[in-house]
Design a protein that fits this description.
alpha/beta; five-stranded mixed beta sheet; 23 helices; about 30% helix; globular
């Protein structure tokens, strides 16, 4: 069939008619070069998740959307002289993955400074990585392992000792954050943050001490993690240009794992609007490779109402575009309603003022038609919050507001019913994959069998979707979440869930695609491979529907497409991989280890590093003029914009 054929025109009219609201397909002109596809992928096995057309072998994309989904013959007939056509050689293809809860904005600012232990299977390997990174990290920089892992994933089933950290790094500060429960600091890090015998105990946390009252280096969340994050915040920060580069590399890592879209849940110690300028700049310059809808997280205890009064006056819900836009309030609405999920500690009881604080904020949001998301681990917190939501609903109907609870590990059947009755949703994350052993230790195996009760929520008809809560509490790898939903096992291998609380693979995939769209108010716009929807997809490295259960978590992407644009490609598709500048600074752990699993960066990044080496930075960089040995020994503060070249080493982007 030719591009001017009847079948093509009929399909085109159907698509464009839906897009522009045309009342008659006959009013559309014949297809011209302006409607030729930008990109065609064919010769593949597409799982579209579109119930009207669940399978296809080819897709055509135009102006960021799926123009045609069908078989090779009809789709290839649409190709024009400028159309890029790629044969996927029988590979399986899935819709792009959407994370319903992550912290990409905060994570991106710091990604290039972090040594990731996500997916590393032994403590011995993790410590070898740490030792190698210590050797190349210049003062005053730290080596940081900031969450995304659990000691249960290691063959040794333990964390490093403080003695081991001090032996590896006597002079370089090392900070290791483990889940939401503790941080390990070597002696150099204690000196850097100024913790000593006279340092007072923090509220809600503990600085463990030796017999003489001196800090040992172990910080505990009892029960909240404020001391952990406040300590981390004392470390050096990257300058703005480096943060731009860091965020690009973090997005590329997400693309490498098939993530095309996220909902950012804000985060503690993340200031609005200052800490959003990096992601906003990238959005303005068209450099986002992940779609991002962001929620606004209240900034200070006892000032929550003022935050949301100011923000609802200055911001409009959904302002932005399909790549970057506002998604409402949360995940922190009021500090008095935050029940932290450290299962090594007893469940915290929320204070008596929780309801009054929460009602004041929810009223503001409902009046301004802002949806919200609320962090809530335990049913005791959820049921009290629902009392508030139902009270507000009687005066200001919540109909049509896409509000939801995050996490909800111990939500009851009654609370699920109440959420559904109010038209809300439940966003689950795979925190139990990282903390399941600790939950079982405290509450017992039986209590863990439906924590959270994902299958029951799904069966109830309540809006529900899946995500990660990355980067600190759990890893950003979506395939770990999909594996957890399907197998019911933790990353440490413990079987948590009986078959009735597990999902089949299609249900799990919909939790990461189609179902997430409701949570960002984008139903019908993304989540499926369907004509008219945003052209986001992933070509996984293994057949998700055909591989063994224990291989799901090992999947990555061979090609990721966002808005009809290839944003990542590897292996046989590597020639289509778009270039990215090397990770900055030049001692970044990303250059050596890449991301998830501690693997060296892919071939494209290695090529970039080889190109970077040719700029002459090892001797006298033509742009910045320094020597690495001298720079690494410098004591220039990393945040000093007038002098950061010396402290950070070269990161020449003119390569």
């Amino acid at each position: 069939m030719t591009p001017g054929g009847t079948g093509v025109d009929a399909g085109r009219r159907a698509f464009l008619g839906a897009a522009v609201g045309a009342t008659s397909a006959a009013v559309l002109p014949a297809m011209g070069t302006s409607t030729m596809p930008d990109l065609i992928l064919h010769g593949a096995r597409f799982t579209t998740l579109d119930r009207s057309r669940p399978r296809a072998s080819a897709v055509a994309m135009k102006d960021g959307r799926f123009l045609r989904v069908g078989d090779d013959r009809e789709v290839l007939a649409l190709a024009g002289p400028a159309t890029k056509v790629i044969d996927l050689r029988g590979r399986a293809v899935l819709p792009g993955l959407c994370d319903n809860h992550t912290h990409v904005i905060r994570g991106g600012l710091n990604y290039n400074m972090e040594l990731r232990w996500d997916g590393v299977r032994s403590l011995a390997d993790a410590m070898a990585m740490l030792k190698r990174q210590v050797a190349i990290t210049p003062p005053p920089q730290w080596v940081r392992v900031v969450g995304g892992f659990t000691d249960q994933q290691f063959a040794e089933k333990r964390l490093p000792t403080l003695e081991e950290l001090n032996a590896i790094a006597p002079d370089t500060p090392v900070f290791i954050l483990h889940l939401y429960d503790r941080a390990l600091l070597n002696a150099a890090a204690l000196r850097a943050v100024g913790y000593g015998r006279d340092t007072p105990e923090p509220p809600g946390g503990e600085i463990t001490r030796d017999a003489n009252g001196n800090p040992t280096g172990l910080l505990l969340a009892r029960p909240n993690a404020s001391i952990l994050y406040a300590t981390l915040a004392k470390g050096p920060k990257l300058p703005f240009d480096y943060q731009l580069n860091s965020t690009r590399h973090f997005m590329r890592e997400l693309n490498r794992l098939g993530v095309t879209s996220v909902i950012d849940a804000g985060g503690g110690f993340q200031k609005y609007p200052d800490d959003y300028e990096v992601i906003r700049r990238l959005a303005d310059e068209g450099q986002l490779t992940v779609r991002l809808a962001y929620n606004l997280f209240t900034q200070k205890p006892k000032e929550e109402k003022e935050d949301f009064l100011n923000w609802t006056r200055a911001s409009k819900y959904r302002q932005g575009n399909d790549y970057f836009r506002h998604n409402g309030a949360g995940e922190m609405l009021v500090f008095s309603a935050a029940d932290f999920e450290d299962f090594r500690q007893p469940r915290p009881d929320m204070p008596p003022n929780m309801e009054a604080d929460l009602e004041a904020v929810v009223r503001i949001l409902a009046q301004n038609r802002w949806p919200w998301r609320m962090h809530a681990t335990y049913d005791e917190t959820i049921s009290r919050a629902l009392d508030v939501f139902e009270k507000v609903n009687r005066e200001i109907p919540l109909d049509g507001l896409h509000w939801f609870f995050d996490h909800a590990e111990t939500i009851s059947d009654r609370s699920i019913e109440r959420v559904a009755a109010l038209g809300g949703g439940i966003a689950v994350q795979h925190r139990m994959a990282y903390q399941g052993e600790y939950f079982v230790e405290r509450y017992g195996k039986a209590a863990a069998e439906a924590t959270p009760p994902v299958a029951r929520i799904l069966a109830s008809g309540t809006h529900v979707s899946a995500g990660t809560d990355a980067t600190r509490v759990a890893s950003y790898n979506p395939w770990v979440s999909l594996s957890w939903l399907v197998t019911g096992r933790t990353v440490g291998g413990m079987s948590l869930y009986p078959p009735e609380n597990r999902l089949d693979r299609e249900q799990a995939l919909r939790m990461w695609t189609e179902r997430v769209a409701w949570f960002s108010n984008e139903e019908g716009n993304k989540g499926l491979i369907k004509e008219g929807q945003l052209a986001d997809l992933v070509v996984p490295s293994r057949d998700y529907f055909g591989c063994a259960d224990d291989e799901i978590a090992q999947i990555s992407s061979l090609m990721t497409v966002v808005g009809g644009r290839i944003v990542y490609a590897a292996d046989e598709f590597a020639p289509h991989d778009p270039p990215i500048p090397p990770a900055m600074p030049d001692w970044s752990p990303v250059r050596t280890f890449g991301g998830y699993g501690g693997q060296m960066a892919d071939a494209a990044t290695r090529t970039s590093l080889q190109q970077a080496a040719s700029c002459g930075c090892a001797h006298a960089c033509n742009v910045h003029g320094h020597q690495h040995a001298k720079a690494w020994a410098a004591s220039v503060p990393a945040g000093d914009l007038k002098g950061f070249w010396g402290a950070l080493g070269c990161a020449c982007w003119a390569v």
